[in-house]
Design a protein that fits this description.
eight-stranded antiparallel barrel, 315 residues, 4 helices, elongated, mainly beta
């Protein structure tokens, strides 16, 4: 993952040096107006669970736990409005995961919570870019050694959009080792007196990112894309507020709910017990979750349909 990021940054700055060289006709971009795009890469979670070995870095890319990056695949459609503005919509499937066991930050590690979830996302975005269309000359025997041209382009694209995604977090049961669906367990007392409202498993995301897009020929393109999603839910990992009374959870939702709400290691005494003033101990914080993807892209252009030329008699 580190190598992929370094390569992305290298090509990003290298492309900035190339943009602006070798332009051909102003309307050359119209040859590549419509494109079907496929992407494959890795996804990482940025939220309450796991992360770096210190506090204060969660929810930012520097807190990404590389050992827990999971697959991300996408398919989409791009339409060019003009040379520098595109519209793109796509479907994304990815897996997110977090685990307190992988951090040495004392309070997170002692909390001992974990999760994983499949994410199904539909998103649309507007893209702004700078591009360098160029023509490389070749010779064709079919045209009596006449000189023909092959159009190529390097595009540097930034984007912002909006999406909706579905998630359903699961956590590993410390006794059985099996994954339990956490939504139905109400691990923070959702629906009980003094507890929060039950969260929704469909949420809104704001994708922001950058794409390095290289047009190979009139049919194919390749690229590399980094996308960061800011979301409006704090429950992708099923963790947000405070610990709820375990006896009440047991009575209302069963023993599994009680167990999954607080599998603490017990290293920090009283970390999950009520405070001296009776307020509940902190389980998570109220910052909204986010996630990021780094993907290789392959595009297939849809050739334009050309109308038939009508010959008119001059007589």
């Amino acid at each position: 993952m580190y190598k992929a990021i370094y390569l992305f940054l290298f090509f990003f700055f290298y492309s900035c040096l190339l943009v602006g060289q070798g332009y051909v006709r102003p309307n050359a971009w119209k040859k590549f107006r419509r494109e079907i795009v496929f992407q494959v890469g890795a996804a990482g979670f940025l939220g309450d669970l796991g992360g770096r070995d210190k506090i204060g870095t969660d929810y930012s890319p520097v807190d990404l736990e590389f050992a827990l990056t999971r697959p991300a695949v996408s398919a989409g459609y791009r339409m060019k409005f003009n040379k520098n503005i595109n519209w793109y919509s796509g479907f994304n499937y990815l897996v997110l995961a977090g685990d307190d066991k992988l951090t040495n930050e004392p309070y997170r590690n002692n909390r001992n919570l974990n999760f994983k979830t499949n994410v199904f996302e539909l998103a649309t975005r507007i893209e702004f870019g700078i591009s360098s269309f160029r023509r490389t000359g070749v010779y064709s025997l079919k045209k009596s050694l006449g000189r023909t041209s092959k159009r190529q382009a390097l595009e540097l694209i930034g984007f912002i959009g909006i999406g909706a995604f579905y998630f359903n977090p699961k956590g590993k049961n410390p006794e059985t080792g099996k994954y339990e669906k956490l939504y139905k367990l109400h691990t923070e007392g959702q629906g009980l007196p003094g507890g929060p409202k039950q969260y929704k498993r469909i949420a809104i995301s704001i994708p922001v990112g950058i794409n390095l897009h290289y047009i190979v020929d009139k049919l194919w393109s390749v690229g590399l894309e980094f996308s960061y999603r800011k979301t409006f839910t704090d429950y992708i990992d099923d963790v947000s507020t405070t610990y709820y009374d375990k006896a009440a959870l047991n009575d209302a939702y069963g023993e599994t709910s009680m167990l999954m709400s607080d599998p603490t290691n017990g290293v920090i005494e009283g970390a999950s017990s009520p405070n001296a003033d009776g307020t509940r101990a902190q389980r998570g914080d109220k910052n909204k979750d986010s996630y990021a993807t780094l993907q290789i892209t392959i595009g297939r252009f849809i050739p334009q349909k050309h109308g038939r030329t009508k010959l008119r008699s001059k007589f």
